[in-house]
Amino acid sequence: MRSRGKNLSDGNLPFFAAGISAVIHPSNPLVPTIHFNYRYFEVEDGKETQWWFGGGTDLTPYYLNSADAVHFHRTLKDACDKHDNSYYPRFKKWCDDYFNIPHRGERRGVGGIFFDDLDSPNQTACFEFVKDCANAVIPSYIPLVQRHKFTKYTEVEREWQLLRRGRYVEFNLIYDRGTKFGLYTPGARYESILMSLPLYARWEYMHTPEENTPEYELVQVLRKPKDWLKLINEKDNDS
Ligand SMILES: *[C@@H]1O[C@H](CO)[C@@H](O)[C@H](O)[C@H]1NC(C)=O
Ligand SMILES: *[C@@H]1O[C@H](CO)[C@@H](O)[C@H](O)[C@H]1NC(C)=O
């Protein structure tokens, strides 16, 4: 935490941490995976208590559906805008930067919001913001499940989903700070930490989707994150 700019003294400091996390890996490849986590930390250093909030919500589709991505981002933006107009653009970028798989040159998914070390303007305002973010999870995601859950899918689509879930595993085990923090904590509940992994995933040597396929299209967006809400404005201007 010192490396992230926290001014904490040496030695063992009493701390308090609370959080909620969930990941849903649906069986139908046309329904995206969602992950969210919201958390609060407190560290007692002498007479002073330092506290901060962090968290985020992000979406990992296997087949890109722009309307889904726009709905998802719009819902999160509305929650952010109730508190501070600068939050969504900052936290959207932070999300794209955080859920990055450098060795693949890909993002984990189409992003969402992510933030850490939030401690202003004050504790109450931050808590209200984080509660609104958490309350936006269901409205951001359930409509996508309802749209696609009964759509028939093929064996090829299922295979692609499993390959993409392999990427999800790569991110979580190699880069995710929450996973690393958990696994390095003495007495950690490994089973709970590894709950974020999908039940099934696969790897295939040098697998590359063919050009002009939906699989290829998804990878293009993962290589270069989109500004989903600007997309809406462009469409509005066109019509
Ligand atoms: C860090 O905290 C200590 C003790 O509260 C204080 O003396 C010091 O000036 C602080 N350093 C910075 C860089 O804020
Ligand atoms: C906390 O910040 C909010 C938003 O800026 C403000 O309305 C509220 O009065 C502040 N509360 C306290 C206790 O300072």
From TrEMBL:
A Pfam family this chain is assigned to: Coprogen_oxidas
Enzyme Commission number(s): 1.3.3.3
Keywords in alphabetical order: Oxidoreductase, Porphyrin biosynthesis
Protein origin, superkingdom: Eukaryota
Swiss-Prot/TrEMBL GO biological process terms: protoporphyrinogen IX biosynthetic process
Subunit and interaction comment: Homodimer.
Protein name: coproporphyrinogen oxidase
Organism whose genome encodes this protein: Acanthoscelides obtectus
